Structures are given as C-alpha cells and as structure tokens.
C-alpha cells in the first residue's frame, strides 16, 4: 500500500505507512520500507513540492510495469529537468539498471561513470562503483577497469554493503588464491 501511495505521488501518506513497515519483523520488508522512506525524505529536503520525486516515481512505475521504452524516456526527461538536484543520482542509477536489462551496456556504463564522478559523495556512489565494476568484469571484459572500481569501494567505502564482495572480486581479478 505504501508503494502505491508513492507511485500516486502521495508521499506524506506513503511515509506514514513506511514508518510502520520499517519496524516489521520481516527484514526484507523493513529494508525495502527503509529504502523508500529515505528516498522520499532525502529528496523532500531540496524539493518541497516533490516535482523531481513525482517524476521519478512515475518513471519507476513505468519500469515496474515493464514499459521500458517509456520508463527510459521518463528518466531522460527527469535528468534534464532535475540536473544537479538530489534526485539525479537515483535517476541515473535506475536508468543504468534498466539499460543493463535492455543490454545497452555502454549507456549503463556512462550513467555509472556520471554517478561516480558527479555524485561520488552521495549515498549511491558505492552502488555505482560496484555495479560498474561488475559490468567491466562480466560483460565488457575489462578486468583492469573492474579492479579500479572495486578499489574505490575498498579504500573509500569501508562501511558499504558491497565492501566484502568488492574485496573478494578484486582479489580474484588480481589472481590471488581465494580459500
């Protein structure tokens, strides 16, 4: 129900519902609720009218409905209208994931690079470094570039949920014997 409120643009009601879900005994539900709650609150600070967040919710709904061409167009429009705003990194990441799904790997790479250069201090930077590393390692066959991305996580994001995996993948690419 909270997600439906979010998609409709009723962010205050969605936040009320998400506060309850965050305390859920089911960890997966609580994590999803926390992520959505943070998305709404983080982007409300800069945009009290929720203009960017409404556009992002619309694009996410199209993505959820597998209307991928329309979703990509919605993300493009959002990235033009919200350039430099707090929602930009979320839109770049969501669009990159959709590009990967559509096997448009070079476009995904470009989006991840934008996040890692323009938003390297934001909360999604480690996601972008990790996903870019995986893209280089598994799809684009550029292991040296992959190592650089994993190094960024190891040296700059020690508290990242990707830290341990980045270490393992880095060591594997380096040729270390892994137990």
UniProtKB/TrEMBL annotation:
It comes from the Bacteria. Gene3D superfamilies: Tetratricopeptide repeat domain. This is Tetratricopeptide repeat containing protein. It comes from uncultured Flavobacteriia bacterium. The lineage of its organism: Bacteria, Pseudomonadati, Bacteroidota, Flavobacteriia, environmental samples.
């Amino acid at each position: 129900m909270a997600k439906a409120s979010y998609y409709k643009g009723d962010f205050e009601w969605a936040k009320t519902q998400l506060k309850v879900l965050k305390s859920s005994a089911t960890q997966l539900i609580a994590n999803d609720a926390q992520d959505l709650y943070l998305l709404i609150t983080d982007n409300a600070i800069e945009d009290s009218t929720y203009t960017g967040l409404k556009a992002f919710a619309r694009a996410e709904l199209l993505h959820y409905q597998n209307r991928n061409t329309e979703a990509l167009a919605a993300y493009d429009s959002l990235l033009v209208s919200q350039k430099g705003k707090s929602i930009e990194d979320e839109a770049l990441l969501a669009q990159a994931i959709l590009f990967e799904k559509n096997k448009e790997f070079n476009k995904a790479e470009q989006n991840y690079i934008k996040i890692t250069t323009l938003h390297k201090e934001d909360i999604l930077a480690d996601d972008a470094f990790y996903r870019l590393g995986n893209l280089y390692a598994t799809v684009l066959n550029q292991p040296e570039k992959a190592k650089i991305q994993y190094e960024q996580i190891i040296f700059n994001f020690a508290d990242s949920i990707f830290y341990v995996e980045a270490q393992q993948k880095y060591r594997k690419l380096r040729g270390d014997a892994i137990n």
